[in-house]
């Protein structure tokens, strides 16, 4: 089937993953790809197109995040079965293939990035560079940056580790790929939260997976006898924002005591807490429990605290697992770029990083409060929400009287017609048909003017739908 789509990527100044994404969307708009059609694996499609696998992975991840594609464990990637994201195909409607949709975004607000401070760190870092850095010999990470990350984690999260435990990676995707490879012989089943970040599910498409429902207390450990590894966001669950309570934490740590299972703790968005206190990382709690301290990995990223293009993250591993992780890193060739690591190290050591983080925390809190005001002023007849104590997005739930599939589809179509693509909560669930209906509204990257315009746009479509009832 894919051969009939006539996909072709060119050197025309547009990134190849964007070309692929647009061509796949055009194929859907023109009916050449139908709901339920299976796409080739990222590796197979990359071979067909003669490009690196990362090109296909990035295109797939964006379409999965938008709900256009979906993943099924051990089966692969498919065109989403539901029609929630499809606008009526008329000439008056903008299609994703020929227009760039606006969207709520929980990424970095680059307009307030301290460019001069960063440039000063770049000058200092490369004025007299370490010869080993120039030779690419720091495969696990630049030692001063490893030390700076240890200091940062202790200051922010009370997490104690040594530099030898810190492995630098090119973001969370590479971190999870390395961990899958490292633990392949020890793990029979992977456990994922439900809901979760859609691209995360895609990265485990080739694995035997079980999804765990998230409740107000977090998600409970499984009862299976299979050896498992769980990928969890326990201190701020994505996208629901729930913090697992102490009882849930203790249940998970107790489940690790037999020495057969693992937890991978993604400390998502915990740099941005606006009220209250953070709970202790499970990695730290495990250090005081016999039998569990070698079973928890901690992963983090600089993409939300600095900028996405940095593509730099880290794994904090138990000392007994460091050698195996480094072996996997060499076997897979998944090394983080060393070029910017000394810059990040200088930025952290001289204090500019912490000043920037404190400033962004205040900046994003103001944006959160502004979005809450907009929601109360414009969307209260159709949605309910709660005030999150941290993070970079707000989840709004469609009120029950408006929660039909038809209403949501028409709301989505109306917003698409005006150039706004919505991120639906349902897209984050393994079974979208039975998932609660709502919107995930990222507020950190857009301007206040954009937030106001988009919320008013949603309200206008909702009002027009209400008038039809």
Number of strands: 15
The CATH class of the largest domain is identified as Alpha Beta
Please count the helical segments: 15
Structural class: alpha/beta
GO molecular function, one term: DNA binding
Protein name: HTH-type transcriptional regulatory protein GabR
Keywords: DNA-binding, Pyridoxal phosphate, Transcription, Transcription regulation
Pfam family, one: GntR
Task: Give an overview of the whole structure.
It is built from 15 helices and 15 strands. It is α/β, with parallel strands linked by helices and 469 residues long. The protein folds into 3 domains: 2-81, Winged helix-like DNA-binding domain superfamily/Winged helix DNA-binding domain (Arc Repressor Mutant, subunit A); 115-350, Type I PLP-dependent aspartate aminotransferase-like (Major domain) (Aspartate Aminotransferase, domain 2); 357-468, Aspartate Aminotransferase, domain 1. Helix 7 (172-182) packs across helix 11 (319-332).
């Amino acid at each position: 089937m894919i051969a009939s789509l006539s996909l072709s990527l060119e050197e025309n100044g547009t990134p190849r993953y964007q070309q692929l994404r647009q061509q796949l969307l055009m194929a859907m708009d023109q009916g050449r790809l139908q709901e339920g059609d299976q796409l080739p694996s990222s590796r197979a499609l990359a071979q067909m197109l003669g490009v690196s696998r990362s090109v296909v992975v990035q295109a797939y991840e964006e379409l999965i995040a938008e709900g256009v594609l979906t993943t099924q464990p051990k089966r692969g990637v498919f065109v989403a079965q539901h029609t929630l994201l499809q606008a009526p195909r008329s000439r008056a409607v903008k299609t994703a293939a020929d227009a760039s949709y606006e969207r709520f975004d929980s990424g970095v607000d680059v307009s307030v990035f301290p460019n001069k401070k960063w440039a000063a760190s770049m000058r200092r870092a490369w004025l007299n560079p370490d010869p080993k850095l120039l030779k690419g010999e720091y495969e696990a990470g630049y030692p001063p940056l490893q030390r700076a990350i240890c200091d940062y984690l202790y200051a922010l999260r009370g997490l104690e580790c040594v530099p030898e435990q810190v492995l630098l990676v090119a973001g969370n995707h590479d971190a999870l790929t390395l961990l899958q490879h490292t633990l392949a012989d020890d793990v029979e089943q992977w456990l994922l939260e439900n809901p979760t970040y859609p691209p995360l599910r895609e990265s485990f498409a080739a694995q035997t997976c079980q999804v765990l429902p998230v409740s107000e207390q977090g998600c409970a450990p499984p009862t299976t006898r299979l050896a498992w590894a769980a990928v969890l966001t326990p201190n701020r669950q994505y996208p629901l924002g729930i913090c697992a309570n102490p009882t849930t934490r203790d249940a998970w740590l107790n489940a690790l005591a037999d020495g057969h299972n693992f937890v991978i703790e993604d400390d998502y968005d915990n740099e941005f807490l606006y009220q209250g206190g953070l709970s202790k990382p499970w990695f730290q709690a495990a250090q005081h429990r016999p039998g569990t301290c070698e079973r928890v990995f901690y992963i983090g990223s600089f993409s939300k605290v600095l900028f996405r293009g940095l593509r730099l993250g880290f794994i904090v591993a138990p000392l007994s697992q460091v050698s195996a992780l480094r072996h996997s890193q060499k076997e897979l060739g998944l090394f983080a770029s060393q070029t910017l690591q000394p810059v990040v190290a200088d930025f952290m050591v001289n204090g500019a990083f912490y000043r920037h983080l404190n400033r962004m925390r205040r900046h994003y809190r103001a944006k959160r409060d502004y979005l809450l005001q907009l929601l109360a002023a414009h969307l209260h007849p159709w949605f309910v929400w709660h005030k999150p104590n941290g993070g970079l997005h707000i989840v709004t739930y469609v009120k029950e009287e408006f929660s039909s599939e038809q209403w949501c589809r028409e709301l989505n179509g109306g917003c698409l017609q005006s150039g706004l693509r919505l991120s639906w909560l349902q897209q984050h669930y393994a079974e979208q048909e039975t998932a609660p209906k709502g919107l995930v509204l990222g507020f950190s990257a857009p301007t206040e003017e954009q937030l106001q315009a988009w919320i008013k746009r949603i309200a206008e479509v909702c009002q027009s739908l209400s008038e039809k009832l």
